[in-house]
Amino acid sequence: MSEDKSNPWLNWPGNPFNLAQQASDYWIDAAQRSVLFMDVLRQRGDERNHRAEQTAPHVLTFAFDVVMDGRQLERPVNYGLLHIQQPDGVQPDPTKRPFIVFDPRAGHGPGIGGMKHDSEIGVVLKAGHPCYFVGFTPHPVPGQTIEDVCRAEALFIAKVAELHPQADGKPALIGNCQAGWQIMMTSALNPDLVGPLVLAGAPLSYWAGVRGKNPLRYLGGILGGTWMTALAGDLGNGIFDGAQLVENFEKMNPSNTLWSKNYNVYSKIDTEAQRFLDFEKWWGNPVLLNAGEMQYIADSLFVGNRLSDAALLDSAGHRIDLRNVKSPIVVFCSWGDDITPPQQALGWVLDLYEDDAALVAGGQTIIYSMHQSIGHLGIFVSASVANKEHEEFTAAMDMIDIMPPGLYEAVFLDKDEEMLQAEIAAGDLAAGDYVMRFERRNLDALRALGGNDVADERRFATVARVSEINKGLYQTFASPIVKSLVTETSAEQQREAHPLRRRYTAFSSKNPLLNNIPALAEKVRAERRPVAKDNVFLQMQEAWSKQIVESLDRYRDIRDQATESIFLGVYGSPVLQALVGLSTDGGKPRRIGRDIAREAATTANRAAAALKTKEGGLTEAIIRGLLYIFRSPEMSAADERAFAAIRQLRLRTSDDKEMSVTSLKQIVREQYVMLQLNEAAALADLPLLLPEEPEARTNALGIVRQVAGATGTLVGDAATRLERIADIFGPAAPKLAVVNGKKKGA
Fold first, then answer.
1. At 436, is the secondary structure helix, strand, or coil?
2. For 391-408, what is the mean pLDDT?
3. The pTM of the whole model exceeds 0.85
């Protein structure tokens, strides 16, 4: 109805003629949206059916070449190494370290790390690095194990390193969700093979969390342990259906699963259809795992929590101890992630290290970043996250690789006017819209996130014991019967009948009831009449939708509260704990075992470094001076601008070659240990590293001042330390000629 300004009564919302017109407009729009929504569901179903027929379906948007096929290895697996091609055809810089993106095999297919241009893979390619991807096929190789996958990943990493002999640094690994803990296992078994690790939304401490949240961690206890995992594997004739994992994820948020996801498309059918189809292309194609693989994951990780306890062994008896990882570890998590909350992403650090001194002594560098709101999948696929966090991590990877041992938090600062002016004066020291800082933290910062008390730890330990008992009973008495009744045909029929797959098949071209939908949808698009936003019936629809969401959310909250109460009550019973053999002394139910050989090697290395305070040359002197300044309280954060200043200065080795990241890392680590163990001796011997020529010493001091001041004017103790270094580097200070890093004379 056209607006009549001469008669306001006609435009009054209560006018029956106005309401009638709004009703007519709304029902036309609603009918059209219904047809278009049905067509979107049909397209989704057809896409799923098409992909189910493919050998290796994926959602990568980048062209690639197959480098290694894991099915051809001595111990075959259904994984493969792909080389991602640069979209613009420009070859990456051969001196830049390669990146390898590992996608999760947690129910879904591969490709989410490169699903969009603004993605982890897209960021790496944009930065000019060689990029590789590790994906997998839907069907596992019979008999393959998690250990076999780790072995294959090690071979993939070695192959990438072999293909890039000129690269300055070992391959950097990005592991999403399940792939995160898997590359940690691989790195613990092959510590000299890998470069920095980025763990995105990866759970490593499965018991961790806080009460009132994180209900997924209670699932093992509510189900009585992992015997149902064994049952599912038997019913699948040795195959575990990844659709069951996807179903567990969906049950966590029933309002989204049952209503919001589909309603969002229906209500915004003109703008949201393609985004929905792109996501469902990945979500709707669950993959399969060997029953043995899933049983290992459920027993050792989900319920047993043995990875962060350093309690896992490989088939050769080697302990899978995350403390053996030598490369820096970047943990990227989010408060909005209900699948891998920050406590589960970071709790393993507290499990493995009693205090900060143990972390530093172990040579471990751990950097964490916590997004305030992004959800689990957004960590991998959000364009905003890719263009900020992942872009900054990629740009700063060389800096991350040389960071001294310790715990740091990555902080992203928006560039203000002062920073921009400083860049103009000093050159572009931080690309992009942000400046990344690594601020020193202690383990108390992780404890402040919240977590289990001793009583909660005992409850989860009780679950692990109960799980072993129930699984043993099932495998002894019920499993042989179930296996005798299952055939490959019945297992396949069961998988196809899973509700996750049925909802795709039901709304596809296989359903004859939808035969007329494509033609009808085309007609609707040609005659589309969207309703006005202020339509009273559209507003009623929105209000009704909100009520549905609120009701389902209330159901979820009540369900989760009941789950937690049952868990706490049942597994907190002293009687049950005693029956499963837990001590009643009230102490911790688990303790991380010591690795005497590793501790001895670490102690020997630190002692050897402490004796080298008189060895080195000009580069070592500069690094030692800078580290001494950065040990002040005012300089408790490492800034990418300072590292960029170092790289721009092109430090040289003793044989006058440009310093590589690997060489710089070794020098930084050694000088840091010297200062940590005996700062006074390290400073006293610093003049012995300096050349006799006053001009060279003055130039070296200029480098120290330039790098130390890259983030701003030094104040307080930092300024005092700089002046002390200036006195040492000054022409009047003691001198010692150094040739090829060895003392010549005093």
1. strand
2. 92
3. yes
CA–CA separation, 300 and 467 (whole Å)? 11
For residue 660, what are its two tokens? 């590589």
Burial tier of 319 (Cβ tally within 10 Å: 0-12, 13-18, 19+): middle
Distances in Å between the Cα of 313 and the Cα atoms of 188, 189, 212, 481, 505 are 11, 10, 34, 31, 42
Name, in order, each residue with C-beta under 8 angstroms of 337's C-beta and a sequence gap of 6 or more.
Answer: 201, 345, 374, 375, 376, 379
- Give me the pLDDT at residue 742, please: 39
Residue environment code for 519-548, b if the CB has 16+ CB neighbours within 10 A, otherwise e: eebeebeeeeeebeeebebbeebeeebeee
Contact between residue 651 and residue 659 where contact means Cβ atoms under 8 Å apart? yes
pLDDT > 70? residue 743: no
Q: By the 8 A CB rule, do 736 and 614 touch?
A: no
Q: Which residues pair with 198 in a beta bridge?
A: 174, 330
Cα within 13 Å of Cα(4), Cβ side: 11
Alpha carbons within 13 A on the beta-carbon side of 254: 12
Nearest to 151 by CA among 127, 116, 183: 183
Q: What is the mean pLDDT of the chain?
A: 89
Q: How far apart are CA 736 and CA 629, in angstroms?
A: 22
Q: How far is CA 331 from CA 219, 368, 446, 699, in A?
A: 25, 5, 12, 38
- Coil/strand/helix, residue 611: coil
pLDDT tens digit string along 37-88? 999 999 999 999 999 999 999 999 999 999 999 999 999 999 999 999 998 8
Query: Residue 467 in contact with residue 224, Cβ under 8 Å?
Result: yes
Q: How is 654-688 classified by DSSP, letter by letter?
A: TTSPBPPHHHHHHHHHHHHHHHHH-HHHHHHTGGG
Question: Torsion-angle region of residue 244: left (phi > 0), alpha (psi -120 to 50) or beta?
Answer: alpha
The two three-digit tokens of residue 269, written as one number:
């059918």
Are 44 and 50 within 8 A, CB to CB?
Answer: no
From first CA to last CA, the distance across the chain in angstroms is: 98
d(Cα 511, Cα 38) in Å, to the nearest integer? 12
Between the CA of residue 682 and those of 363, 623, 689, what are the distances in Å?
19, 12, 11
Taking the C-alpha atoms of residue 154 and residue 689, their distance in angstroms, rounded to an integer, is 40
User: What residues are paired with 83 via a beta bridge?
Assistant: 65, 132
pLDDT at 380: 83
3-state secondary structure at position 368: strand
Beta partners for 408? 367, 440
Provide the 3-class DSSP secondary structure of residue 495. helix
CA distance linking residue 675 with residue 672, whole number of Å: 5
The CA–CA distances, whole Å, from 732 to 578, 685, 687, 692, 729 equal 73, 15, 11, 10, 8
Q: How far is CA 105 from CA 140, 144, 422, in A?
A: 11, 14, 45
Cβ contact 699:622 at 8 Å? no
Greatest C-alpha distance within the chain: 104
